[in-house]
Automatic annotation (TrEMBL):
Pfam family of the protein (one): DUF4440
Lineage: Bacteria, Pseudomonadati, Pseudomonadota, Betaproteobacteria, Burkholderiales
Residue ranges annotated for the DUF4440 domain, each copy included: 6-112
Source organism of this protein record: Caballeronia arationis
InterPro entries in UniProt: DUF4440, NTF2-like_dom_sf
Protein name stated in the entry: DUF4440 domain-containing protein
């Protein structure tokens, strides 16, 4: 996998997040995913998929402001700053977030195995 391939996977992930496409997310997230959100809560893959399936989280806007990609043999790390707007638990939110994702080749496909996001102060 090269940098362009990882950027393409990131684009597919962002599109799936915007449309709450649980099937696409299922294919892009490792079964043992650990995702730490901006509040410090740890989410599993099941948590994330259910959040999209049942409307807990809705993303209406996701604009990539900057992104770096580092590729290793069977892993890659992305650091992405996004402008995000949507709702969580029915409450609206908007802000700038920075995501760090670790992609690894597992089971013959590249998937997110770990991720973290934090608020970017204005």
């Amino acid at each position: 996998m090269d940098e362009n391939g990882i950027r393409e996977l990131e684009g597919r992930l962002q599109k799936a997040m915007l449309s709450s496409d649980a099937d696409a997310l299922d294919a892009l997230l490792a079964d043992d995913l650990s995702f730490v959100d901006a509040t410090g809560k740890v989410w599993t893959k099941t948590d994330d998929l259910n959040g999209h399936r049942y409307g807990l989280q809705r993303i209406e806007q996701l604009d990539v402001e900057e992104q770096t990609v580092r590729v290793y043999e069977k892993c890659a790390v992305t650091v992405t700053r996004v402008a995000l707007r949507g709702s969580f638990g029915g409450a609206p939110f908007a802000g700038s977030l920075r995501y760090t994702r670790t992609w690894c080749e597992t089971g013959g496909a590249w998937r997110v195995v770990a991720a973290h996001c934090g608020l970017v102060p204005f």
